[in-house]
Amino acid sequence: DLDFGAADDCDSPLMCTPHSFPPSPEFRADVMARSAHFTDDVLYLARDHLRVAQQSRCEDSSVREVAKYLQQRQALAIFSVSDSAQGIVLSRGGHCAAKVGSGLCSSTRAMVPVLHNRFVYFQMSVLEASHQTGLASLGLGLATAEMPLNTLVGSWKNSFGICSSGQLLISSSWYNSSPCVPFGCGSTVGVLVYLDDSKVAEHWEGPMIQAYFVFTVDGKRITASLPGQTSTNEEVGRSAAQEPTLQVPRSMLSILVPRDEVLYPVLTLHSPHVEVLTRFCAEDVSSVDREQLGLPAGIPVYALDGSVVLGSEDVCRGASSERTPVPHSLHLRHPSPEPLREGSAGEDAVERAHTKTEEPESVASRSGVLPQEGPATNAACLPGFVASALVEGRNFPSALSNTSDAARVGNSDAGPIEAPSAD
């Protein structure tokens, strides 16, 4: 017989439930679905690690440096479970987020920050939901790590985002977009950002740099009129005598952000039970071309994980398999992670979750930014399914050896993220 506690300890005549079982119906449903989602999570995680391993051997030195940097940090281009508000549930290996809590605004941050001195592009897709009765209410954009997770992205300083109403929210100020394109279930929102370190402005809050950005909704570029916004293209990059200068399109908006801070992709959910799928890798990005982004030819575009979305000669995604390295130096910034917490999966679990790779080449000698040695990763930054799988002594490659989907996961030419087949 199950012992649910002494009768005199219960104020109700009904049988008591275990304190470890969530009382909320939404959280109970999440707990019951975890075992069903476990296989999907492992497959997505294995695919992501295979992608990073492949990028570490890429001929493009820029892509290779980013991949090895991610291996040093033991990070992936997914949502971070430790940087998600209470009530946010992550699935599909951290690529999909949904809100099950009762909070007004629940946000989740990506594990990987945006690169500096690069055009970085990523997408988020709002999945169709048959049970969704109203319009989806959410926002997405970029923010620093100091933004609270119960805050709408864009309402905090040094953050900017677009809301499902079609309006832009930039550093707590609302702006009407042109065209005003509301989005919801079935829509895909793209974000193009460029953090320019070549021009530093002194500010009372410290050194500031320009963050250029543009949003697209289902392929339509969104613009707005901001105070002080220039009407002509601006040059970014290093000295023209050493490297070719880049042109920031006039359609890109800009704000000042702290030079010493990093920006993370952020998703804020207001409506419950709305699933949003991230597209942080070039292989997952849906159709995109330069006309959508407003970029001239010759400017490469990178995904959040460092993979190339558009090469220098590419007109649209998939137009050419040849990727041209960016002429200027790679500039990554990342805060020092916290030490491993006691009671977590531990260092052994983290080491088993990642295959051994050769020592990353020294990039600090060229850029002065990347660390020569990767510090230990906070285990809380890894998705929960990693720890649960490794506690049982399972290694992901061996766990996939008897799985029919192993060949599909190992395919380096995998297409956009789709839900694994129920079969």
TrEMBL record:
This is SPRY domain-containing protein. It comes from the Eukaryota. Residues 349-359 have a biased composition (Basic and acidic residues). Residues 318-378, 397-423 are annotated as: Disordered. It comes from Rhizochromulina marina. InterPro entries: B30.2/SPRY_sf, ConA-like_dom_sf. The lineage of its organism: Eukaryota, Sar, Stramenopiles, Ochrophyta, Dictyochophyceae.
